[in-house]
Structures are given as C-alpha cells and as structure tokens.
Q: What sequence folds into this?
C-alpha cells in the first residue's frame, strides 16, 4: 500500500486576519461618520445605548486588549478613560486606536495565536478567539448602528464596502 502525503493549506494567515478586521473598522468608522452629531450621542431604539457609547466600548476594548495580550497583562476592561463630547473626538480616537491595533497585533507571533489568554481577567480563550470576539462584537454593534441610521431615515454604508 502506498501512502501519499498531502500538504495542508492554511485558511488565513495573521496578516489576512488583521486586514479583515481593519476592513470592519473602516466600515464602522463610516457608520460613525453617517450619524448627525446630536443623534450619535442621544438617539437609541428600544432602550439600547446611543451609538457613541457603543463606539466608546469598541475603542476601549480592541487596542487595550491587544496590548494586554502582548504584555501578558490581564487588567480589567475599562470604558471610563475616554469620554468624547463630539463626533470628531470619536473619529480621532478611532483612528488613533487603529494604529494601536496595528502596532500590537503585529507583535503577536503565530504561536501565540493558539495560546490561551484570560482577557481582562474574565474570558479565557485562545488569543485568536479573543481577536475574533473583538470583530464579532464590532459587527454586532455596527448592526445596531445600521438600525439607528435607518430609523433616522439615513442610508447606512453598504456592508460589503469595507475597504
């Protein structure tokens, strides 16, 4: 009997994951831009938080969490450090955090993606699953933003135009 070895192809490498995530971030930034300033901070549907608060949550998670992963620091999650008062404040911080994400993401070795990490001292999953959580959470909140924009009579950006 003859045995044939088959090379396993990788589905996605870490740079493709980062590119995908940044595509989501680009789209979420465009959702923030689409809001009139007053409604960004005040409008909500069904008791959900205004989109500005959702954006602050996303800003408060991604960069600090990646820094925690790189530094092996399980410090608790904290939204209190950033209290924007304008859409411009949010967009500026969004762009700054994009650079933080790029900086720390590129310090995570391929091997570390498989390591278990206790994110914020609460969620113990492999690093790659923590990163997928950041993306999933952003997509979830962006969906809320789409509902808000439509309720305001504003056409949201096409969800497939991420870059």
A:
């Amino acid at each position: 009997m003859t045995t044939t070895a088959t090379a396993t192809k990788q589905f996605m490498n870490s740079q493709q994951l980062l590119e995908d995530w940044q595509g989501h971030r680009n789209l979420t930034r465009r959702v923030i831009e689409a809001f009139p300033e007053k409604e960004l901070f005040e409008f909500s549907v069904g008791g959900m938080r205004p989109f500005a608060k959702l954006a602050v949550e996303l800003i408060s998670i991604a960069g600090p969490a990646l820094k925690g992963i790189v530094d092996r620091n399980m410090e608790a999650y904290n939204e209190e450090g950033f209290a924007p008062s304008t859409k411009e404040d949010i967009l500026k911080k969004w762009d700054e955090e994009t650079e933080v994400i790029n900086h720390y993401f590129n310090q995570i070795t391929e091997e570390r993606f498989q390591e278990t990490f206790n994110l914020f001292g609460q969620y113990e999953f492999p690093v790659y699953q923590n990163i997928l959580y950041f993306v999933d959470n952003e997509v979830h909140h962006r969906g809320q933003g789409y509902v808000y924009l439509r309720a305001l009579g504003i056409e949201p950006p096409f969800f497939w135009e991420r870059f």
User: Anything to note?
Assistant: The chain is about 55% helix and 5% strand.
